[in-house]
Amino acid sequence: MQEPIFFEPVAKERIWGGQKLRQYGFPVSDERRIGEVWTIASHPNGMTTVQSRTLTGLTLEELWSNHPEIFGMETHSDFPLLLKWIDASTDLSVQVHPTDADARRYEDQPFGKNECWYIIDCPENATLIYGHSLSSPSELDTAVDQGTLVQSLKHIPVSKGDFFYVPAGTVHALTKGCVVLEIQQSSDTTYRLYDYDRLDPVTGMKRPLHLDQARRVIRFPHFHYAEPPVFLSSFRKRLTQTPDFFVEEWAIRQTHTLESSPLFQIITVIEGTIELNGVKLSVGTTVLLPANSEHTVSGTGLLIVTGPSLKITRPLRIGIDLGGTQTRVAVVNQDTIIKQLSFPTRPAAGPEQTISHIKQAIQLFSDEFQLTTIGIAAPGPLDTKTGHLLSPPNLPGWDDVDLVTPLSSTFDIPVSLENDANAAALGEALFGAGQSYSSVYYVTVSTGIGGGYVYEKKLIRGAHGYAGEIGNTIIDSSGPAHPVLNAGSLEGLASGTALQSRALEKRASSIERLLEDPQERTRFINHLATGLANIIHTIDPDVIVIGGGVTGSADLYWEELLEAVSGLVYPSLRSSIDIRLATLEGHAGVIGAAYLE
Predict the structure, then answer these.
(1) 85 close to 21: Cβ distance less than 8 angstroms
(2) Is 410 exposed, middle or buried (0-12, 13-18, 19+ CB in 10 A)?
(3) For 97-121, what is each residue's pLDDT tens digit?
(4) Helices 518-539 and 558-566 sit at what angle, rounded to 10 degrees?
(5) What is the pTM of this model?
(6) What are the structural domains, with CATH classification, of the chain?
(7) One of 192, 219, 328, 502 is an active-site residue; which one?
(8) Cα–Cα distance, 61 to 43 (Å, whole number)
(9) pLDDT tens digits, residue range 120-149?
(10) 192 in catalytic set
(11) How would you classify residue 156: left for phi > 0, otherwise alpha for psi between -120 and 50, otherwise beta?
């Protein structure tokens, strides 16, 4: 069968619903509080039926069971997806969903509930609840007992057109005024954590909470999920690809021929007027496109397209950026972060907790990707040969910590450890501002100042792993003392920490305001230029790449810095000096870590 398949949607009354979905083409009467309209569903709690010419009256379950050729996949199990429009006329309950494994274990259901939201509309300055700040089930228990659960919830800003993937185990809630297209696994299992003490309109009692069930499935800690959108063509943008579904946004401005797909796809009109094979589709229309079928789409508007994902088989790498305040675990393919999970490091809780959280994140990715290597960028000092942190200042108490063995023994793939500055240097040399050069020196000017040297795409570590550590070089021996480094070191004079201290001393409100003062700017430039000139005279690199947080203010000092460096090197070198800003921004460390050897 080649023709598109239309369905009769199912409206659901909810205590928090309203009438706003009528604006999107759904029949909503004044007396009903419609919170959800299920547009594609094959679930015992809601079943859409076919409206197309040849199959009218069949439920989606019947279509799925009897016509596998339409879907391009085995149909012995349940239909995997559920699409719905949501009108949150008031705040929804704070809730969490189980994973597939938890749904089978605790509910005898085939699917957990990974879901995603496309924000159709929302109030100005709206926020959503997405995540929590609790580190363990016992902290949850304490928050519930003391009535402080609400204070532990994370609120994030949201605007029309935003997209959020909400994996199972994530504490979340939509808020008043949001209209959302939700794409999810075919599940209706929800555990309420908090419900604003609302009364059930039938019983007059407070709606029940599911604290015991929620406690079993909430992910501790909350992993902040990041997945950059991927532009697939001039009109197609992929918003997510998970093992359960993909989601794309199509901006239609002309006629396009849709390529045949081996699996079925579902399109939903969210804006404008679209024609599919010459048939006009209005906002709110959802259509199933059979597998191996070709169609034309035209008009002006936006479509959301989804369907089951094809398995990703290419090998990928894990990069880990272990910091004093935050740890990032990312799936990396060259200069691209495919997906990333991050969480607070909590040094005082000890290394075992952080290592456990890193394992959780890698395990989540290993369920989805074929992973080949793991690389860790960490603050020094460390021993790359044994894989041990020694006693990093920003991780107090982490003395002689083995980071490599716990991961290599768990995942049975190679694991490498490297100084964070060296990892960032490798990232910029392979895929960033230094990728066209043989000899690359990288400097990070951030909380501290670090450096790394890459020659012929290989890190130069030195005999003891300290090559390139420019932060401890002495710029002015009469300069300020430092608790760890030399008095008058480059880091003690020109790092973000040094500039912040100077700003406080000069009563400037920020580093940016400090550098607006010509005298202070010249002081900073002279110190940094001296350090860079020392690098040039020592190793004569093709290029120096500068990154780190202080480069966010580079427009205030960049040209003056280049001129100052030129004045400090041999005249014969001046025409050859190449100093560039980093291009991988804050991702150089985690990308470089993924490519450690």
Answers:
(1) yes
(2) middle
(3) 999 999 999 999 999 999 999 999 9
(4) 50
(5) 0.92
(6) 5-219 (2.60.120.10), 230-307 (2.60.120.10), 315-422 (3.30.420.40), 433-581 (3.30.420.40)
(7) 192
(8) 8
(9) 999 999 999 999 999 999 999 999 999 999
(10) yes
(11) beta
